[in-house]
């Protein structure tokens, strides 16, 4: 499978070998930074997250790999927020932040447990001079958003409820509808037109599901 090609040739499905792989949460996220001072100040001094680990190394792996620092901030329950600082490098154009939903789609949501904790995060960050979004409720989550000095979006979120069986069924039917339409559109050489197309296909799948239930 090539990097970023989408080529699934030679891969096997989990149902074929009977091995159930299990994850136990997030260990760390990692992103590059070209703003060492600002990143450390933001996460350690403004957010107040402890700096708990740092790796300093000569370049390794492929030719041209820069010497680097790899440092980690505590994000709770064993998870960390990590950054790579590639010594002597300049930020490539493709890593420059942009005001577009494609860019902001890549982010990590860090969890708090209660509404009071979410309110505390928003009010405290604003008192510390950070611009924070309004509270946003999206189905099972409520979140706030802000950006770090690198332009990376950060989400702080709380669960409004746990997922149930009906959520799993709904997810399966939604994605099945979208997969079918994407396949048809690829074969026809066009893009998926809109969400209404997905909803109409999903409605047919829901009817079939009800009949078989």
Walk me through what this model shows.
The protein is of the alpha/beta class and 213 residues long. The chain is 35% helix and 23% strand. The protein folds into three domains: 25-96, 2,3-Dihydroxybiphenyl 1,2-Dioxygenase, domain 1 (Roll), CATH 3.10.180; 107-162, 2,3-Dihydroxybiphenyl 1,2-Dioxygenase, domain 1 (Roll); 165-212, no CATH class. The chain has a four-stranded mixed sheet, covered by helices on one side. A four-stranded mixed sheet has the order 5-8-7-6, covered by helices on one side. α5 (165-188) packs across α6. The protein is globular and about 60 Å long.
Secondary structure elements and pairings:
Blueprint: H1 14-17, E1 28-32, H2 36-46, E2 51-57, E3 68-76, E4 79-86, H3 101-104, E5 108-111, H4 115-127, E6 136-138, E7 141-147, E8 153-159, H5 165-188, H6 195-212
Parallel strand pairs: 1-4, 5-8
Antiparallel strand pairs: 2-3, 3-4, 6-7, 7-8
Helix pairs in contact: 5-6
């Amino acid at each position: 499978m090539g990097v970023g090609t989408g080529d699934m040739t030679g891969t096997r499905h989990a149902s074929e070998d009977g091995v159930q792989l299990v994850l136990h949460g997030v260990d760390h996220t990692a992103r590059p930074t070209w703003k060492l001072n600002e990143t450390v100040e933001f996460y350690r001094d403004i957010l107040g997250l402890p700096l708990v680990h740092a790796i300093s190394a000569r370049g390794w792996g492929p030719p041209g790999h820069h010497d680097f620092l790899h440092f980690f901030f505590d994000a709770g329950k064993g998870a960390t927020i990590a950054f790579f600082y590639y010594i002597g490098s300049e930020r490539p154009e493709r890593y420059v932040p942009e005001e577009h939903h494609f860019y902001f789609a890549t982010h990590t949501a860090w969890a708090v447990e209660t509404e009071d904790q979410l309110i505390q995060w928003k009010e405290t960050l604003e008192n510390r001079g950070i611009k924070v979004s309004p509270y946003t409720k999206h189905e099972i989550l409520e979140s706030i958003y802000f950006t770090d000095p690198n332009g990376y979006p950060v989400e702080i979120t709380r669960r409004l409820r746990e997922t149930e069986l009906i959520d799993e069924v709904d997810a399966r039917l939604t994605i099945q509808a979208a997969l079918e339409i994407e396949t048809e559109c690829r074969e026809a050489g066009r893009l998926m037109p809109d969400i209404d197309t997905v909803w109409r296909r999903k409605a047919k799948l829901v009817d079939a599901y009800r009949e078989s239930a």
